[in-house]
Amino acid sequence: MMINNITTMVVLLAAIGFSTQTTAETVSSLRGAADIDQDSAAPVAKKYAKDNEPISRDYVQQPPLIPHKIKNYRINLKSNKCMSCHSWSNYREANATKISQTHFESRDKNVLANVSARRYFCTQCHVPQVNAQPLVENVFEPVTAISGQ
Ligand code: HEC
Ligand code: HEC
Fold first, then answer.
1. 93: exposed, middle or buried (C-beta count within 10 Å: 0-12, 13-18, 19+)?
2. Rounded to an integer, what distance in angstroms lies between the CA atom of residue 53 and that of residue 67?
3. Ligand having the closest approach to the CA of 94
4. Ligand 2 centroid to 79 CA: how many Å?
5. What angle do CA 120, 118, 140 make, to 5 degrees?
6. pTM surpassing 0.85?
7. In the chain, what are the domain boundaries?
8. Distances 32 to 28, 37, 42, 43 between C-alpha atoms, Å
9. What is the pLDDT of residues 78-135, one digit of tens each?
10. Who has greater pLDDT, 90 or 42?
């Protein structure tokens, strides 16, 4: 009886081993590569949308999308190119939107005289746009209160 069970197990294990092997042979790459261990082709670099009017928001708390290119707009310890147009001292001259009050609030809810460190790296929340096909379908509808319907 015991021997019988062991034999059955050996046969089963062999069968499992065999079946995983056959599946591995039929796996096809979702990346479009001919073989799964082949590198994918580098995607074509997309062009960022040209300077445009502000893009309407989909929900009240959404960080507005950037309606212009930001190539070479550096943000580092020494300078923040975005602030040269969006700060309260420069926005009029640049004809840009000024950063909102919320951008002056520290983590402890103190209101500062300048942009808060937690809002310094603008592109953490604000992103420029490219005209690209969505990778997955999205049926999200904006809140009617702000979409003006
Ligand atoms: C040379 C000036 C300039 C620079 C630099 C600049 N912007 Fe702008 N930005 C503008 C102007 C002008 C607008 C459009 C305002 C309009 O048409 O009402 C704008 C619009 C925006 C908006 C949309 C605001 C809204 O209400 O929808 C965001 C967000 C924004 N910029 C973020 C950034 C970020 C982040 C950077 C840095 C990476 C940056 N901008 C750098 C001039 C600038
Ligand atoms: C942590 C996320 C975050 C960061 C970082 C951030 N923002 Fe924003 N921003 C928001 C959100 C959310 C809003 C919309 C609600 C509000 O006004 O706070 C907004 C609004 C804005 C607006 C529109 C203001 C208005 O009155 O309609 C501008 C312009 C803007 N941000 C520019 C900037 C710039 C420039 C920087 C970098 C110095 C920056 N933001 C950093 C989240 C962020």
1. exposed
2. 6
3. 1
4. 17
5. 95
6. no
7. 47-130
8. 8, 12, 11, 11
9. 999 999 999 999 999 999 999 999 999 999 999 999 999 999 999 999 999 998 888 8
10. 90
The dihedral sign for the CA sequence 57, 63, 64, 67: negative
CA distances (Å), origin 54, targets 8, 57, 80: 70, 9, 21
Residues with CB under 6 A from ligand 1: 53-54, 64, 66-68, 70, 73, 81-82, 84-86, 94-97, 122-123, 126
CATH architecture of structural domain 47-130: Orthogonal Bundle (1.10)
CA 109 to ligand 1 centroid distance, Å: 25
